[in-house]
Amino acid sequence: LNYIAAQSIGAAIGIALLGIWHGRANLLSRGILPQGRAGILLIFRIYILFLVLFMLVPFDFTLSASELAARLAQVPYQWLQIPGGGRPFVVRCVLIMAGSLAPAPLGALLVLAKPQRSIAGATFIGFLAMCGVPLASLLLISGVTSLVVLADRTVGILVGATVTRWLIRQDLVRLREQLRRAAPFCLLVYLPMVLLVNGLATRHWQSIHAAVDSLEYRGLIPLFYYYAVAKATATQNVATHALLYAPIGILFWMRYPALSPRAISAFLTAVAISVCVEFGHWLQPDVKPDINAVGVAGIAALLAAKWMPVVWNRMADAIADTRL
User: Fold this and answer.
1) Which of 30, 83, 139, 164 has minimal CB crowding within 10 Å?
2) Predicted confidence band at 117 (pLDDT cuts at 50, 70, 90)?
3) Helix (H), strand (E), coil (C) string for the chain
4) For residues 261-270, average pLDDT
5) Quick one: average pLDDT of 52-66?
6) With bands split at pLDDT 50, 70 and 90, how would you rate the model's confidence at 6?
7) Range name among 147-151, 178-182, 213-217, 286-290 with the lowest pLDDT average
């Protein structure tokens, strides 16, 4: 019954979003955005909306008093729960950082929407907004109500507001050139991080023969693992791989501002790197390669390379508006 309810809630949300955002989504799909500050505000609002929905996946809301009582009984044990429990130290650090920076656009939105608002004011309003997520998670059977996570997200909102206030005082043309020069150095940091996060910086390998014997051939079918696991796990898997490989598109945008096939180049590079990573997973004992990661990597890098110029230009427009 909870599964049916979750599916119904997801369908209802989809229908509601289609009705509310159909016109704006059509403009976004064609790369047409409002001019000035309204453009970046629209991008941030859509992003935050989908971020909150992602936080509430799989929408398995409690449907009875007994389920709610059982859920509330778990809450005291979750107050201090840290993301990434049971994961390697490096992976946990990355997850905590990603969870912190995910709501950073909310801090940027609050500053740009009202430029006279202080960083402290924007952070406090963002904190109040983020409080709605753990409150809603109280009604989710699989929800986690962690004050550590709430504090982590609040730090991200503070970072978003602070960086936006800093950008308002910068020469964006000069900053864009500095980003272009910094791209190779960022790449030198990014590639080792990919190896560490994927557990490839190790001495534990198996032979090709052993890898062939242990290969799960059904896993080579696209989307097979997504059907074999819970929907929340599949969603988190997609988001994790997208987060891991989207920086490739950002790096291409940073380094090659005038490169016309930038998105395709980012796509091919991300696909090549993800193939190497999954090949490394195949050669590791007790690790299954995920063919779906290759497609997710390419799409994430392509979208990042395509949309970063749009976000940057609209951000520049918004900053120019605040200086008037």
Assistant:
1) 30
2) very high
3) CHHHHHHHHHHHHHHHHHHHHHHHHHHHHCCCCCCCHHHHHHHHHHHHHHHHHHHHCCCCECCCHHHHHHHHHHHHHCCCCCCCCCCCHHHHHHHHHHHHHCCHHHHHHHHHHCCCCCHHHHHHHHHHHHHHHHHHHCCECCCCCCHHHHHHHHHHHHHHHHHHHHHHCCCHHHHHHHHHHHHHHHHHHHHHHHHHHCCCCCCCCCCHHHHHHHCCHHHHCCCHHHHHCCHHHHHHHHHHHHHHHHHHHHHHHHHCCCCCCHHHHHHHHHHHHHHHHHHHHHCCCCCCCCCHHHHHHHHHHHHHHHHHHHHHHHHHHHHHHHHC
4) 88
5) 82
6) low
7) 213-217
